[in-house]
């Protein structure tokens, strides 16, 4: 009797055979794929290697320079005059540690979990590479892992190239092989440990030890070493603050691997597993720089570009990652006092109910050597780093605050006017035949007769600077602002046909783009230091690896003669002290026996208000307005003045010298007649005290005579071909 297999067994056998054949086929296919992939890799390696070998440029990262890729440190002077660390600039937080300072347990922990054959291979672990490719195809391990060695990972971190391309991988392989020829294993491991990512901006075991454990890296225990080696695999997944269980699991894996490879004994292994970990608190809170540090970073970046020809991107990388030591001029106490004024809403006028935004404000304060004292770029609490700094990066229309530097100062220096020169309070006729300008609160241009310079400045007349500008020409004014006073935002011409070499920009402050508060303060310094211009600076030097790469300090350029500067100083003091300067005179009561000079500025549309001026200690530019150029109400237009006053009072040193007498030069103080502008006699009914250059004194007044006309300067031609003027001989 013939035994027949049951149908289900027949089917079972057939299906089993099919499965076996299928498995064999897949295995063969896998092996074939691996061979093909390996062949492709070899072919690509050779192709890329040959191609890059003839490029003429080395592709090997410089391990010796890695220690330059560190956190930059800002230093300030303490009360004893010694420089101490103030803060760290967070590009990456990285502290270089030599291999001798890094615990052997930490070195072994990283090798054990990341590249156990590190000491045997020559840059590439081919066994690991092939295994990684096989796992990619067969999925025999649920956890994906790469074939990169520590050397390959170092190459990737140094070049910042993480492209998922065969070309990148092949280049990385050959670069790793080449790196192992030029550097020792210790040098490679040291570099790797100093740049491994450990969350956010924290890189390297030196910074990591402080961030997670508030310890020096040399003081880490075995258990803590295993934690750092665990975190670097995936800082987000293994964060002790958000995923503590996952981290402990990973740490146990690292310790097991170290024990398996013989790096630690059983007792050490058991003790580390049972150690209680204590992590530093509040590490999640990011440091918010003040406006001074924001400005400092921008200034160093700009100076690196100007000095070394770097691109802006290169300069920023150097500041954030170059391990620079920056010696800042900041006094945190003074900076905090200034910022406190702007954080207090009580110091600001109420906004209009329909406003979508609060009006904004900014102030820049410097001393007469050019050193930045304090800077605030906006109202309220500063909540982020490198936000808009309206004091240094926003251009706003200056209004009448431009007149002293664009018109009156050069006119005094050219001997076109003196303290009390009589000038027509009258419009001028522009080339197009129009009559311009009108004074504030007048509906049309007028011809009101004569007025003296002192009154014209106090009253912020528009007609008088227009008359002077017609004598000097806008070109002369423009050249003084851009050449001597370094106002960088002025426009010669643009593609829309705009130019600031014209009457409205130079005479009334209607600029094409506007001006920066920082540059306005710097320009006004010449009225408080005898006519010397110093470029603003916020640091004295920058070092890298002990080498000085940038220096800053006073530039001391005499742009206005001492006598002219003092005449302007006294004219602007009268804006505060005189009988016609109603707006700024509100400051008088706060300063009593202090001499201060200032000028307000309000744009025609009431979009911007300014007060720029100085005490004997500091000079400052205060701006107030809406970011979106909304019109201000009458109650809001005094805000720039009030904020200037509050900040300067907060910064005031009552022991300082209170007068500008030392800058008087050879000027002569005399009484003048307000009606004629001449030296007063006992017949003059209204008089004032003026200051005069000895070579440009007015004549003695014969009451009732017609005032002398302004001198008409000779004309000349500038290099641009536009008409300018030359001062008459004294």
Q: What keywords describe this structure?
A:
730 residues, alpha+beta, Penicillin binding protein transpeptidase fold, Beta-lactamase, 5-stranded mixed β-sheet, 5-stranded antiparallel β-sheet, 22 helices, 14% strand, elongated, disordered C terminus
Structure description:
- It is a single chain.
- With 730 residues, the chain is an alpha+beta fold.
- It is built from 22 helices and 20 strands.
- Among the domains are: 67-123 and 156-163 and 177-274, Biosynthetic peptidoglycan transglycosylase-like (Penicillin binding protein transpeptidase fold); 391-662, DD-peptidase/beta-lactamase superfamily (Beta-lactamase, 3-Layer(aba) Sandwich), CATH 3.40.710.
- The chain has a five-stranded mixed β-sheet. A five-stranded antiparallel β-sheet has the order 5-4-16-15-14, with helices on both faces. A two-stranded antiparallel sheet has the order 6-9.
- It is elongated and about 110 Å long.
- 43% of the residues are buried.
- Residues 1-17, 45-59 and 714-730 have low confidence and may be disordered.
């Amino acid at each position: 009797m013939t035994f027949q297999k049951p149908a289900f067994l027949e089917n079972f056998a057939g299906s089993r055979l099919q499965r076996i054949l299928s498995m064999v086929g897949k295995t063969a296919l896998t092996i074939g794929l691996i061979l093909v992939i390996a062949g492709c890799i070899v072919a690509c390696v050779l192709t890329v290697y040959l191609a890059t070998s003839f490029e003429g440029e080395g592709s090997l990262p410089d391990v010796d320079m890695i220690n330059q890729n560190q956190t930059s440190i800002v230093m300030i002077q303490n009360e004893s005059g010694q420089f101490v660390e103030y803060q760290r600039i967070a590009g990456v937080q990285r502290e270089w540690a030599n291999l001798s300072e890094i615990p052997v347990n930490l070195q072994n922990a990283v090798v054990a979990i990341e590249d156990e054959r590190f000491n045997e291979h020559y840059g590439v672990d081919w066994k690991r590479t092939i295994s990684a490719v096989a796992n990619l195809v067969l999925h025999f391990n649920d956890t994906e892992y790469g074939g990169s060695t520590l050397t390959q990972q170092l190459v990737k971190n140094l070049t910042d190239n993480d492209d998922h391309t065969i070309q990148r991988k092949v280049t990385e392989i050959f670069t790793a092989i080449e790196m192992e020829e030029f550097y020792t294993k210790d040098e490679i491991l040291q570099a790797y440990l100093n740049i491994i990512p450990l969350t956010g901006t924290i890189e390297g075991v030196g910074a990591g030890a402080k961030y997670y454990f508030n310890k020096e890296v040399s003081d880490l225990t075995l258990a803590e070493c295993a934690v750092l080696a665990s975190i670097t695999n995936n800082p987000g997944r293994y964060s002790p603050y958000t995923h503590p269980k996952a981290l402990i699991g990973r740490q146990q894996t690292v310790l097991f691997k170290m024990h398996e490879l013989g790096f630690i004994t059983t007792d050490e292994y058991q003790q580390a597993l049972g150690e209680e970990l204590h992590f530093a608190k509040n590490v999640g809170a990011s440091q918010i720089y003040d406006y001074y540090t924001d400005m400092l970073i921008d200034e160093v970046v700009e100076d690196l570009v100007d000095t070394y020809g770097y691109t802006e991107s290169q300069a920023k990388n150097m500041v954030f990652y170059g391990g620079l030591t920056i010696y800042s001029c900041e006094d945190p106490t003074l900076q905090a006092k200034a910022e406190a004024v702007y954080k207090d809403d009580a110091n600001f006028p109420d906004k209009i109910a329909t406003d979508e935004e609060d009006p904004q404000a900014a102030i820049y304060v410097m001393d007469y050597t050019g050193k930045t004292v304090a800077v605030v770029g906006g109202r309220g609490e500063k909540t982020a780093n490198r936000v808009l700094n309206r004091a240094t990066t926003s251009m706003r229309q200056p209004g009448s605050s431009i007149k002293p530097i664009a018109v009156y100062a050069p006119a005094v220096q050219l001997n076109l006017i003196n303290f009390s020169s009589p000038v027509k309070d009258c419009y001028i006729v522009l080339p197009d035949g129009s009559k311009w300008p009108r004074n504030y609160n007048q509906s049309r241009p007028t011809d009101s007769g004569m007025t003296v310079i002192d009154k014209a400045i106090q009253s912020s007349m528009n007609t008088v600077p227009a008359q002077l500008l017609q004598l000097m020409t806008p070109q002369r004014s423009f050249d003084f602002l851009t050449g001597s006073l370094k106002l960088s935002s002025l426009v010669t011409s643009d593609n829309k046909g705009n130019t600031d070499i014209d009457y409205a920009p130079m005479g009334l402050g209607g600029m094409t783009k506007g001006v920066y508060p920082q540059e306005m303060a710097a320009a006004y310094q010449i009225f408080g230091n005898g006519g010397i211009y110093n470029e603003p600076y916020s640091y004295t030097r920058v070092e890298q690896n002990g080498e000085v790469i940038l220096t800053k300090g006073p530039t001391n350029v005499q742009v206005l003669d001492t006598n002219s500067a003092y005449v302007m100083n006294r004219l602007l003091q009268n804006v505060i002290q005189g009988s016609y300067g109603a707006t700024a005179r509100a400051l008088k009561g706060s300063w009593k026996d202090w001499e201060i000079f200032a000028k307000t500025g309000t744009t025609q549309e009431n979009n911007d208000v300014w007060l720029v001026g100085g005490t004997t200690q500091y000079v400052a530019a205060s701006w107030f307005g809406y970011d979106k150029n909304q019109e201000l109400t009458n109650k809001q237009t005094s805000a720039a003045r009030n904020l200037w006053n509050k900040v300067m009072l907060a910064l005031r040193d009552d022991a300082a010298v209170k007068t500008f007498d030392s800058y008087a030069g050879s000027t002569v103080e005399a009484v003048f007649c307000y009606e004629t502008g001449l030296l007063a006699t006992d017949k003059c009914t209204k008089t004032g005290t003026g200051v005069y250059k000895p070579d440009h004194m007015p004549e003695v007044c014969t009451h009732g005579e017609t005032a002398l006309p302004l001198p008409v300067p000779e004309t000349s031609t500038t290099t641009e071909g536009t008409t300018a003027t030359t001062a008459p001989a004294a």
